[in-house]
């Protein structure tokens, strides 16, 4: 009787062992795919980005001096979803992507300053105080950074509304969190941060308050700046005959809506005399040369919600020169293909263990054995 009981227990043990082995394999595959798609792929892709080389030797008459290089990251249009239009799954997916991309870039590239060029939030223009506080808290978690890294943020139309829906409360609410400074200087380089939403008042070209503030910044630049400032604003101006987008040509940008009016652009160029303009808002890469000499580069969106291939700009900047390069983030379609492939592999593995599908490995092994026995 004892022998019969032992045999029965061994008979039940084999199916249990096979199920445990299958479960362990499934868990291992799921863990490996999640680890790669949600963590490692960001390191793999961003590791390929390098700071562009820039000339660091400046000549003052007959003397040569070595200029310090400032490493700056420029990203735009994060569009953190709000409580009205943001589905929880969309929030989770897109915000995790941006958080992992930003934290990985900070760790690998070690920038000294990061600029976010407008549209930080998607629903800032109409969010309630409670929703605003929640959005700000999520932003601060996602874009946390060491104390030695400067983070500069400029308002976009989704943060405070277009000129016809913007008001003092929305502007002050934004500036309470992100500061209201317009002129930022570091290592002899001047950055002018302009919210161009305020420059598109109905019929006024540039509104009087914004005009007065910009004239004051212009005076400060003329009194204290190094000869070549760097100027930045939040909405791109890729329109007109001189537009030459490097990636997407024939993009319809509506003047005074998607871009500044030509009059406003000319005044800004006259007052600030920049050597480079970096802007956001269009979600796409676009390059235009103002007057044939001042380049303006529109920075693509940082979020999968707006682009399948988000990216940011890396700038090596000195008081007399600069060099830019684009750093791409992981493509969303590549991540989805990996997940779909993993699901297919798990299905095949499960069916194979259940005996409903012959394992390709075992089939090949059996075929090889048959050939050897002949």
UniProtKB/TrEMBL annotation:
<dbReference type="InterPro" id="IPR033308">
    <property type="entry name" value="PGAP5/Cdc1/Ted1"/>
</dbReference>
<dbReference type="GO" id="GO:0046872">
    <property type="term" value="F:metal ion binding"/>
</dbReference>
<keyword id="KW-0812">Transmembrane</keyword>
<feature type="transmembrane region" description="Helical">
    <location>
        <begin position="336"/>
        <end position="368"/>
    </location>
</feature>
<feature type="transmembrane region" description="Helical">
    <location>
        <begin position="21"/>
        <end position="45"/>
    </location>
</feature>
<dbReference type="GO" id="GO:0033116">
    <property type="term" value="C:endoplasmic reticulum-Golgi intermediate compartment membrane"/>
</dbReference>
<keyword id="KW-0337">GPI-anchor biosynthesis</keyword>
<comment type="function">
    <text>Metallophosphoesterase that catalyzes the removal of a side-chain ethanolamine-phosphate (EtNP) from the second mannose of the GPI-anchor protein intermediate. Participates in the glycan remodeling steps of GPI-anchor maturation to allow an efficient transport of GPI-anchor proteins from the endoplasmic reticulum to the Golgi.</text>
</comment>
<protein>
    <recommendedName>
        <fullName>Metallophosphoesterase 1</fullName>
    </recommendedName>
</protein>
<dbReference type="GO" id="GO:0012505">
    <property type="term" value="C:endomembrane system"/>
</dbReference>
<keyword id="KW-0464">Manganese</keyword>
<dbReference type="GO" id="GO:0008081">
    <property type="term" value="F:phosphoric diester hydrolase activity"/>
</dbReference>
<keyword id="KW-1133">Transmembrane helix</keyword>
<dbReference type="GO" id="GO:0006888">
    <property type="term" value="P:endoplasmic reticulum to Golgi vesicle-mediated transport"/>
</dbReference>
<keyword id="KW-0931">ER-Golgi transport</keyword>
<keyword id="KW-0378">Hydrolase</keyword>
<dbReference type="Pfam" id="PF00149">
    <property type="entry name" value="Metallophos"/>
</dbReference>
<comment type="subunit">
    <text>Interacts with GPI-anchor proteins (via the GPI portion). Interacts with TMED10.</text>
</comment>
<keyword id="KW-0472">Membrane</keyword>
<feature type="domain" description="Calcineurin-like phosphoesterase">
    <location>
        <begin position="71"/>
        <end position="284"/>
    </location>
</feature>
<dbReference type="InterPro" id="IPR004843">
    <property type="entry name" value="Calcineurin-like_PHP"/>
</dbReference>
<dbReference type="GO" id="GO:0006506">
    <property type="term" value="P:GPI anchor biosynthetic process"/>
</dbReference>
<comment type="similarity">
    <text>Belongs to the metallophosphoesterase superfamily. MPPE1 family.</text>
</comment>
<keyword id="KW-0479">Metal-binding</keyword>
<dbReference type="InterPro" id="IPR029052">
    <property type="entry name" value="Metallo-depent_PP-like"/>
</dbReference>
<dbReference type="InterPro" id="IPR039541">
    <property type="entry name" value="MPP_MPPE1"/>
</dbReference>
<keyword id="KW-0813">Transport</keyword>
């Amino acid at each position: 009787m004892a022998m019969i009981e032992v045999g029965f227990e061994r008979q039940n043990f084999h199916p249990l062992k096979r199920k445990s082995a299958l479960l362990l394999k499934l868990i291992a595959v799921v863990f490996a795919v999640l680890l790669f798609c949600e963590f490692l792929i960001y390191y793999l892709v961003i590791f390929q980005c390098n700071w562009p080389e820039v000339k660091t030797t400046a000549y003052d008459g007959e003397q040569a001096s070595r200029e310090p290089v400032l490493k700056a990251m420029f990203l735009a249009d994060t569009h953190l979803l709000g409580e009205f239009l943001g589905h929880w799954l969309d929030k989770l997916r897109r915000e995790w992507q941006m958080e992992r991309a930003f934290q990985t870039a900070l760790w690998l590239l070690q920038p000294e300053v990061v600029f976010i060029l407008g549209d930080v939030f998607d629903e800032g223009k109409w969010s309630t105080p409670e929703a605003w506080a929640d959005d700000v808290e999520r932003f601060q978690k996602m874009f946390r950074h060491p104390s030695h890294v400067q983070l500069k943020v400029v308002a976009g139309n989704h943060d405070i509304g277009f000129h016809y829906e913007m008001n003092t409360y929305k502007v002050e609410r934004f500036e309470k969190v992100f500061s209201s400074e317009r002129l930022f200087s570091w290592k002899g380089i001047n950055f002018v941060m302009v919210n161009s939403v305020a420059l598109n008042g109905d019929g006024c070209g540039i509104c009087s308050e914004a005009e007065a503030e910009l004239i004051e910044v212009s005076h400060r630049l003329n009194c204290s700046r190094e000869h070549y400032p760097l100027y930045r604003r939040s909405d791109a101006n890729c329109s007109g005959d001189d537009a030459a987008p490097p990636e997407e040509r024939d993009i319809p940008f509506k003047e005074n809506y998607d871009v500044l009016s030509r009059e406003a652009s000319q005044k800004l160029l006259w007052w600030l005399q920049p050597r480079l303009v970096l802007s956001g808002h269009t979600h796409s890469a676009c390059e235009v040369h103002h007057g044939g000499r001042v380049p303006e580069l529109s920075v693509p969106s940082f979020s999968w919600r707006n682009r399948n291939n988000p990216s940011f700009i890396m700038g090596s900047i000195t008081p007399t020169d600069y060099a830019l390069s684009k750093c791409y983030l992981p493509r969303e379609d590549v991540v989805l293909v990996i997940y779909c492939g993993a699901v297919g592999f798990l299905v095949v593995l499960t069916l194979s263990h259940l005996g409903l599908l012959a394992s390709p490995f075992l089939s090949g092994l059996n075929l090889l054995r048959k050939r050897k026995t002949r």
